[in-house]
């Protein structure tokens, strides 16, 4: 028998050769001790699990036909639901037992879950590990997803599960670690198969879908893996040139502006963008003119500019008084 196979005899504290009356007495003693009615102020998860397993053991071993099939299945080399923690690899014997054990309760697949995560542009320079707390519906730990429990006195009718109210599910907070790929675009949807809600009665688990939203950067704009930055320069820097410092996503970059810089002139810093590639950082200069100049400064600037020959401005038209 596989070590993963659930031993119902062991759960009830009985040897495999125990008689039906011994099985009935062992289950009754277990139910009296673990049934929720016997501990109304307690919701201990270990006790809930022990009660659920004892109920499952009774449902199998208390039925002579199911018990006979279970005894045969115990000798199989591959375990299968409901007698082990797997949801695949059903043997025909155990599949028949599952249907008999739970009647018309068909397997129910878990729902897909969706969530959104906001990240900074700078976070995407490399793979970003994240830890998410996801509210998720799982099979009730007391009734095992059936939504009902046997009566405490064993002979009474089944009752609605006191933990899940008959729904078969409970909502818990599940912590999941994911990785956002480097260079992800805003709106990217990551799918994690089997990380959604748990299935019931052998049903498949749903998927988790995580939408990635990238917050806008205060100065950088992206287009694919390339980053774009508008950088102001003074009139003096545009005329005479200058060495300036640029703050990019990966740190500071130094570039040299040539003299006679044109408005809108671009500079490209290779591999200073985002993965994959990586992309480039493209810097566009725009000339900023002084504002609110006092009259004396304005006059001096006007006099200085008037000394520049018009031939220095190819393609520019002037009013007649400036041509004099």
Give the secondary structure arrangement, pairings included.
Layout: H1 8-11, H2 20-34, H3 45-61, H4 64-73, H5 92-102, E1 113-119, E2 128-139, E3 148-149, E4 159-160, E5 169-180, E6 189-192, E7 208-214, E8 220-223, E9 226-234, H6 235-240, E10 242-248, E11 251-257, E12 266-269, E13 281-288, H7 295-306, H8 320-323
Parallel strand pairs: 1-7, 9-13
Antiparallel strand pairs: 2-5, 3-4, 6-7, 8-9, 10-11, 12-13
Q: What is the N-to-C order of secondary-structure elements (H for helix, E for strand)?
A: HHHHHEEEEEEEEEHEEEEHH
State the CATH class of the largest domain: Mainly Beta
Low-confidence stretches: 78-92
Q: What is the CA-atom radius of gyration, in angstroms?
A: 37 Å
Question: How many discrete domains?
Answer: 3
Annotated CATH homologous superfamily of the largest domain = Urease metallochaperone UreE, N-terminal domain
CATH topology of the largest domain: HSP40/DNAj peptide-binding domain
- How much of the sequence is in beta strands? 25-35%
In what order do the strands lie side by side in the largest sheet? 8-9-13-12
Helix content: 10-25%
| Helix segment tally | 8
Q: Report the mean per-residue pLDDT as an integer.
A: 81
- Secondary structure class reads alpha+beta
Query: In angstroms, what separates the terminal alpha carbons?
Result: 108 Å
So, CATH architecture of the largest domain? Sandwich
Shape: rod-shaped
Strands, count: 13
């Amino acid at each position: 028998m596989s070590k993963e196979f659930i031993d119902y005899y062991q759960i009830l504290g009985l040897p495999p050769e125990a008689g039906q009356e011994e099985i009935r007495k062992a289950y009754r003693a277990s139910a009296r001790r673990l049934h929720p009615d016997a501990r109304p102020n307690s919701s201990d998860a270990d006790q809930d699990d022990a009660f659920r397993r004892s109920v499952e053991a009774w449902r199998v071993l208390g039925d002579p036909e199911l018990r006979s099939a279970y005894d045969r299945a115990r000798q199989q080399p591959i375990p299968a639901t409901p007698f082990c923690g797997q949801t695949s690899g059903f043997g025909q014997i155990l599949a028949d037992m599952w249907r008999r054990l739970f009647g018309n309760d068909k397997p129910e697949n878990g729902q897909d879950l969706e969530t959104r995560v906001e990240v900074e542009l700078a976070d995407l320079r490399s793979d970003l590990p994240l830890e998410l707390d996801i509210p998720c519906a799982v099979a009730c730990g007391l009734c095992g997803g059936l939504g009902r429990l046997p009566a405490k006195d064993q002979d009474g009718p089944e009752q609605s599960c006191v933990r899940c109210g008959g729904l078969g599910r409970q909502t818990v907070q599940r912590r999941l670690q994911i990785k956002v790929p480097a260079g992800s675009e805003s709106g990217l949807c990551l799918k994690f198969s089997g990380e959604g809600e748990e299935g019931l009665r052998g049903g498949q688990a749903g998927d988790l879908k995580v939408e990635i939203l990238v917050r806008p950067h205060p100065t950088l704009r992206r287009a694919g893996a390339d980053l774009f930055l508008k950088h102001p320069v003074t009139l003096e820097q545009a005329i005479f040139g200058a060495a300036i410092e640029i703050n990019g996503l990966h740190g500071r970059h130094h570039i040299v502006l040539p003299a006679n810089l044109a408005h809108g002139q671009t500079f490209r810093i290779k591999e200073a963008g985002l993965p994959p590639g990586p992309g480039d950082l493209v810097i566009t200069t725009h000339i900023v003119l002084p504002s609110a100049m006092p009259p004396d400064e304005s006059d001096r600037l006007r006099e200085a500019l008037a000394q520049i020959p018009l031939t220095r401005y190819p393609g520019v038209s002037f009013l007649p008084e400036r041509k004099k």
